[in-house]
Amino acid sequence: MRGPDWPIATPGQAVGLLGGSFDPAHQGHLAITTEAMKRFALDRVWWLVSPGNPLKRDTPASLERRVAHAADVAHHPRIDVTALEVQIKARFTADTIAALKARYPGVRFVWLMGSDNLAQFHKWDRWKSIAGAVPIGVLARPGHRLSALNGTAARMLRHSRVPAGLLAQCDPPAWSFANIPMRSDSSTALRRAGVWKR
Ligand SMILES: Nc1ncnc2c1ncn2[C@@H]1O[C@H](COP(=O)(O)OP(=O)(O)OP(=O)(O)O)[C@@H](O)[C@H]1O
Ligand SMILES: O=C(O)c1ccc[n+]([C@@H]2O[C@H](COP(=O)([O-])O)[C@@H](O)[C@H]2O)c1
């Protein structure tokens, strides 16, 4: 885990950004990250442990605890666990992406999300400008495949769908859907099972 410093990326590198509450991080996060690296040809993935999802009402566990636990789960040489949105002072993804693109010119950022988030994407703040700013890699999640592919965002962006292997090199708007072996892990289930207490 990198503390308050900034992760390293050099121009031309393809860096996936997996934003999330990570309340707590789980094996599903790790699995989609390693699949995303392979399928979307990413050099690294940064986990952005968010101060709070603007669409969620519940208060998550403390950021410090979530980051520390995520760093334990993401034991991988090409994953950086960060709290960059605190450093950037951004709550909305559109602002996070704008700040990272300004700070890392020439780095090819790809926004990653599970397909549950694609189904909701049209409700995000400035979602069209996000789609115009970075390629988006979507990873299949149980129960959210068809709803995502038939949802508002997927339909409006239907002409921008590209093959997974080309995604990171495409200029946005560009998105790709990876039909990975699906995993049922979820933070909600871990909280409900009492494995993680807020
Ligand atoms: N099992 C999974 N399969 C595919 N994508 C996943 C999976 N778990 C999490 N994701 C994706 O990882 C990102 C971060 O997820 P998040 O931290 O909210 O975990 P979560 O398990 O979805 O949490 P919660 O149950 O609290 O909503 C989101 O884009 C989410 O869609
Ligand atoms: O910017 C938005 O409007 C927005 C709305 C919903 C979710 N997000 C981001 O999507 C990521 C996944 O959120 P979550 O809480 O489902 O893990 C995380 O980085 C959030 O900040 C962003």
From TrEMBL:
Biochemical pathway: Cofactor biosynthesis; NAD(+) biosynthesis; deamido-NAD(+) from nicotinate D-ribonucleotide: step 1/1
Q: Which reaction does it catalyse?
A: nicotinate beta-D-ribonucleotide + ATP + H(+) = deamido-NAD(+) + diphosphate
Q: Which is a GO BP term held by this UniProt record?
A: NAD+ biosynthetic process
Name the enzyme group at the top EC level. Answer: transferase
Q: Keyword Electron transport: yes or no?
A: no
Protein name, entry field:
Probable nicotinate-nucleotide adenylyltransferase
Native species:
Palleronia abyssalis
Q: Per the similarity annotation, which family is this?
A: Belongs to the NadD family.
Where do the Cytidyltransferase-like domain residues begin and end? 17-192
InterPro entries, sorted: Cyt_trans-like, NadD/NMNAT, Rossmann-like_a/b/a_fold
- The EC number on file is 2.7.7.18
| Function per UniProt | Catalyzes the reversible adenylation of nicotinate mononucleotide (NaMN) to nicotinic acid adenine dinucleotide (NaAD).
List the HAMAP family. NaMN_adenylyltr (MF_00244)
Which Pfam families does this entry report, sorted A to Z? CTP_transf_like
